[in-house]
Amino acid sequence: MPLPRFDRLPAERREHILGVARRHFAEHGAEGASYNKIIEAAGVSKTAAYHYFDGREDLLTAVLDGVLVRLLDALGPWEPAGDEEDFAARFAAGSTALAAHLGGHPEDLALADTAIGRTSDGPWLDWFGALVADGRRLGLVRTDVDAALMVATTAAVVRAADAWALARMATGTDPGDAPGQLWALLRGLWGAAPTGQEPGHAL
Asked: What pLDDT is stored for residue 181 in this prediction?
């Protein structure tokens, strides 16, 4: 996270620095962007830069945190659904809104998979927790699997589908009915285990 001195900068200056960093990371990749080139382009001296961030990784984390906030804002909070049709409609609306945001913000598109991939808890997983809990309330999500495992697995499936769709969007290829394909995958994951059939052991 940025150091306290960075938080005391005027908002416009903070956004300028993070905006320059976001462009560099989006263009050259999270691992390929040069910290020195970023701070030079942002008009920040090396001395000042180390008063704002612990280093390159700290700056990258701040940029990715910002990407994740914007993705969650586009997705919107999960609100309890009235029935299965409402649940599906809410999920589709969130997916469509997120895709629209990414289509209009190429830097967020370039960094979205990295930002999501670094998330093991916090608001991103909380969103899936609310989704799964609501699906269980409506009888749409199986209850024979531990809730935390179901949340983590649901998030992983969505991430895999998003990575596929994002890669196609980044190359200008139409991902087609990505929300519909994702919904089909999730319904398969969430479906109840066959009655009377004991699950096998993976290990």
From this structure: 83
- Give the list of residues 6+ apart from residue 11 with CB closer than 8 angstroms, or none: none
Residue 63: exposure state from Cβ atoms within 10 A (0-12, 13-18, ≥19): buried
Binned at pLDDT 50, 70 and 90, residue 192 comes out as low
Structure-token pair, residue 63: 């940029």
Q: How far apart are CA 199 and CA 122, in angstroms?
A: 31
Q: Taking the CA atoms of 70, 78, 187 and 142 in sequence, report the sign of the dihedral they define.
A: positive
If you average pLDDT over every residue of the chain, what do you get? 87
Each residue's pLDDT tens digit, 111-152: 988 888 877 678 888 999 999 999 999 999 999 999 999 999
Cα–Cα distance for residue pair 53/38, rounded to 1 Å: 12
